[in-house]
Amino acid sequence: MADKCDLCLLGLIILSSLLTGTSGVTDPHVFISSGENVCLPCNNALPDCNSTTWIYNRFRHSAAVELIIKGIKKKNTGRHERLSLGCDCSLNIKNVTKEDYGFYTCRQYVNGQKQGTDARVFLPVLHVSVSPSPSSSSQTKISPGCPVTLSCQLYSRFSCDYLVLSEGLQLLWVNQAGVDLKTDSRYKILFSSYHCNISLTTTLLNEDDNKEWRCQLTLRNQVKTSARYTVKYSGTGGADDAHVFISSGENVRLPCNNALSDCKSTTWIYGRHSAVVELIGLGIKKKNTGRHERLCLGSDCSLNIKNVTEEDYGFYTCRQYVNGQKQGNDARVFLHVLHVSSSSSSQTDISPGRSVTLSCQLYSGFSCDRWLRSEGLQLSWVNKTGIDLKTDSRYQISSYHCIITLTSTLLNEDDNREWRCQLTRRNQLKTSVTYTVKYSGTGGVNDAHVFISSGENDHLPCNNALSDCKSTTWIYDRHSAVAELIGLGIKKKNTGRHERLSLESDCSLNIKNVTKEDYGFYTCRQYVNGEKQGADARVYLHVLRVSSSSSSQTDISPGRSVTLSCQLYSEFSCDDLVRSEGLHLSWVNQAGVDLKTDSRYQISSYHCIITLTTTLLNEDDKREWGCQLTLRNQLKTSVRYTVRYISY
Fold first, then answer.
1. What's the CATH class of domain 343-436?
2. 208 FRET partner, CA 20 to 30 A, in 197, 299, 475, 520?
3. Which residue, 409, 416, 406, is CA-closest to 438?
4. Confidence of residue 205 (pLDDT cuts 50, 70, 90)
5. CA separation for the pair 633, 107 (Å, rounded)
6. Cα distance between residue 72 and residue 56, in whole Å
7. Are 294 and 468 within 8 A, CB to CB?
8. CA 445 to mean position of chain CA atoms
9. Model confidence over 503-561: pLDDT tens digits?
């Protein structure tokens, strides 16, 4: 019996080490819902993806399947048409199914020799099924008065009981407003930890047509993924079209959900008010359209649009042709664009004492009245902290159809003040667009700010990119020390970080395994025939990092005192960020509760450093504390520290 107990304990330790990463490399867990697209990072990639092999296993000792070998996709696997290799050697899987769960290994070979440690990614998949099944033969069963049962299951190689006990996993059914349906006696909710399954049973009502219920997965009170089910009564269904909401000035990706293995079969067509334009023809961009310089085709046949304008709204059709014959059904994407304009015709009109009216409009191919009635669409003006400006008598807010206006008289203190127009659908934020007051002489380039935690991978956008990345140069600057990272589309190899850098197809700069030394500002600049083109696009990178006062692992043990220091590395004065941007650093526990409320911890802060000091207890082993950075009450990034005791 004692031997069996020891064996069980050993098994639990092994499972724990796999899940938490104590066995060596910290393996990421990517939670996804079936039907979505996912990107699995390769954290050991070399500069050339020709060395990369991706291997799939359902279970630890199950048969391995090679998906990618030395950068080339294997075509004898059942899923090869849904796979693609990213420029950073990541593995992209389109239209994930429940059969895709398991673990994926990224391995490097050079001259036939394995290089370094494997990088593994665990992929758990959340899937919803319905009984009765709404197939063509039984669609009539989905109708008012009929009972329906929705089953939501997490497919994972780990024991659900273990995930519930040690990782705080929770599955729940919520309505469109995010309210737990357990609180409504209309629904019968049953949870089984044996199968990691939660079911919802109810009798359908007339008003349930187009109603949405959502199965939500949380770990330690943080939502990891969710899967939706929308009731569709007979005759109300249609093509499974995607709706994408975006703000003008941003970049957007429109998915092609019917893509074949080769994008040479892909044609993208744009339509609005019966005016049809072919943007991409059989994988080749049409250059006779007014927007062609802002378009590019992704490796998964998605359509990428840079610097979206209000004129881009409408519907986009992805269609496949092979040997001149149309293949399958079209995949449509409806693009809705939120745009803000000002009544001030020039910058000189933006000054204290003047009246300004901001007009926020949703440009959409759909009737706004229909959206308001059936989709619960709502537009609102809010301040930096997210408070609705309707509550402030200083502002006159009026709305008509899909336009909401804000009128106010400008004050001296409004310089650099930000107002935000927010669009929600069924109480969920879809997009927002910000207007910042700039008095004459105070303006500047609209630079991007990216907040990231050390150890993560980052993506810096190039908002002035031309159609060809051979014109793109990336420059890094900190305290006037300037280094060219990318020169005319080619990576410089004489920089200390070149192995961690890559250039994306949209000319963005990817940085793997960010360190505190990476903070500073990055400039994307365009050259054609040696001549600089247009304005620079700058990105400020702020890095959050945690360090411990313990010099070695042996110092991490019960009874010892430990101090964790969380610091934001930034080119900007911390006082300025606190005063003007509402920056706030805090230490929280696994449930997100601020540790300032617990007398056990001594919390102190100075500029952009916040420290946590405590004496370790026996029960602190594997306890997690998080340092959280918010701007204007919105979480920007966080970094976690997990206590690890040494077992002897």
1. mainly beta
2. 197
3. 416
4. confident
5. 41
6. 15
7. no
8. 26
9. 888 899 999 999 999 998 899 999 988 888 888 888 889 999 999 887 665 567 888 88
Name the packing angle between helices 160-167 and 2-20 (round to 10°): 70
Cα 199 → chain centroid: 27
Contact 473, 527 (CB under 8 A): yes
**Topology of domain 448-543, CATH:** Immunoglobulin-like (2.60.40)
DSSP at 47: S
Q: For residues 104, 110, 116 and 121, what is the CA-based torsion angle, rounded to 10 degrees?
A: -10
Give me the torsion for CA of 214, 170, 224, 62, rounded to 10°.
Answer: -110
Query: Who's near 342: CB < 8 A, 6+ residues apart?
Result: 350, 356, 357, 358, 359, 435
Number of neighbours of residue 328 by Cβ within 10 angstroms: 9
Strands (E), 355-446: 355-363, 377-382, 396-400, 403-409, 418-425, 428-436
- As to burial, measured by CB atoms within 10 angstroms (0-12 exposed, 13-18 middle, 19+ buried), residue 183 is exposed
Question: For 127-132, which contacts have Cβ atoms below 8 Å and span 24 or more sequence positions?
Answer: 127/33, 127/34, 127/97, 127/98, 127/152, 127/153, 127/155, 127/227, 128/33, 128/34, 128/152, 128/215, 128/227, 128/228, 128/229, 129/153, 130/229
Per DSSP, which regions of 96-211 are E strands? 102-110, 113-123, 125-131, 147-155, 170-174, 188-192, 197-203
Position 124, amino acid: P
- CATH 3.40.50.300 is right for the domain spanning 549-642: no
* Gap between the Cα atoms of 106 and 178, Å rounded: 37
Which residue type does 194 have?
A: Y
Q: Tell me where in the chain the CATH 2.60.40.10 domain(s) lie.
A: 16-123, 127-230, 242-337, 343-436, 448-543, 549-642
Note the pLDDT tens digit of each residue in 423-446: 888 778 888 888 888 775 433 334
CATH of span 242-337: 2.60.40.10
Q: Which of 578, 566, 570 is nearest to 639 (CA)?
A: 566
pLDDT in tens, 286-299: 887 677 888 888 88
CATH of range 16-123; options 3.60.110.10, 2.30.110.10, 3.40.50.1580, 2.60.40.10? 2.60.40.10
**Token pair for residue 63?**
């048969």
Please state whether beta strands 284-285 and 222-230 pair in parallel, antiparallel, or not at all (unpaired): unpaired
- Give the class (CATH, top level) of 127-230: mainly beta
